[in-house]
Amino acid sequence: EEKIRVAVMDLGQFSGAMTSDLRSEKFGAVAAEYLTEALADSEKFFVAAQEHIAEKIAAENLQTSGEIAPSMARKIAKVLNVDYIIFGTVNGVSGDTMTLEILSNGANVHTVRVVLIVQMMYAKTGRLIVARGEGTSKSSLVKAGTKSAGYITVGKKKISLNSVDNAIYKAACAVVADLEAQLDDFIADND
Known about the structure:
The chain is α/β, with parallel strands linked by helices and about 190 residues long. It has helices at about 20-25, 25-40, 50-60, 70-80, 160-190; strands at about 5-10, 10-15, 45, 85-100, 105-120, 130-140, 150-155, 155-160. Strand 4 and strand 5 (about 105-120) form a beta hairpin.
């Protein structure tokens, strides 16, 4: 069975879904990397290399993040020699904290939740498959009087960047599973 040729654009970040300090993080680019990895691991997709995408898109001065119009998708697909363009948004990064007492110090256990909404557009027709993926991850921050490196603040909660990264990876894998589940019917409808 021939693999479907796709290119993954950096994901945008839905502005209402996270605070300004989170928007400064590169979650969209991280999510695109994890989507690329999960798609490449799939038996159904051939994925254009991310570094080649950046070079070719920059040379053509094309818009590649967030919402992409069908006419732009056709241009991108032609430049990258693919049939499908994948784009979308990091729709939310949120966290919950639970405090545990360990000896006299205690620890905060963080649960991070990331939601990705992705669209895979067939460049020839502009038709879309919409996929959603959610990932969660837990981490802890021990209250030992030391500064916490590698954390971001979500509201008033300190969340481990490793946990955010892990939740993005899980969300990307869930998106790919959703795309695979819809793919056969989508292709049949395009023939």
